[in-house]
Design a protein that fits this description.
Layout lengths: L7 H23 L5 E8 L7 H8 L8 E8 L1 H9 L9 H9 L4 E5 L7 H8 L10 H9 L19 E4 H6 L1 H20 L1 H11 L5 H11 L9 H9 L23 H10 L7
Helix pairs in contact: 2-8, 2-9, 5-6, 6-10, 8-12, 9-10
Amino acid sequence: MDLVIITWRQRLYFALVATLAIAVIMICADKPSSAQSIKIGKTIGGSGFHIPSYIAVDKGLLKAEGLNADFISTTAGVLVRAAIAKEVEFVPIPGGGSEAMLKGAPLAFIVGESFNAETDRVAALINKSIHAAILSFPHAARAEKAGLKILVKTGDYIPRLGGTFITHRDFLKEKRDVTKRFIRAMVRANDYVKANKQGTIDVIQKYFEIKDAALAEGIYKQVANAYGPEMPNDLLMELFQSRTTPELGWPAGKPLPDIEQFVARDLLNEVLKEMGRKVTK
């Protein structure tokens, strides 16, 4: 039988090759194989309540979490039905979402930031087809620029959960890590609004097709401190109470169920805690 003699140089060479191979395997194991594609609901014409989601996409905050996001633009009602059908993963329609939950839809609120398009209302006001309308702040600012008068800013009197995201419970269960990454990106998007004035103004001009920089800056001043990931129980209660009317099919006198069952609060608080933030109750 022939003997194979391996010199010390050859032993060193093989050892280095083996070490390099192990290092490559470890690096590949730590790196995600591919980015996760997700779909995010977006109302036609845009909504001031949804600016953080525009920032999360436009400024790469979701991409930094390994998420490739596409906006699905349509009406609020269609977006809620798409969430129920698992066609859109994240939908910022709290009103329609809460109504669907009360009727048994397997949805859950996940993070704070929904309504029908408002561009037609602005046009109708300018053309005097209608005499008054409720508008979110970007559209209200545009109407004011056109010479219309703002009678009252409801946000000064009525805190709201506009833009709060919902997702299907199956997705929450099966894609818990993806949902956590989405929440984390939205928390950072809320922070971005406060810390980056010009970057936020750029996003406002892009998504609301506003060429007037002064108008966009005026909108920014209204939203600079308007967003947060929290979903306070008292505001959720008001939201659900607004959906328990006979006109919406809720039997008169029927008590409201425990609304916390519709909130993935443990997951939100887990993310906030990991980020060193104050958790909510």
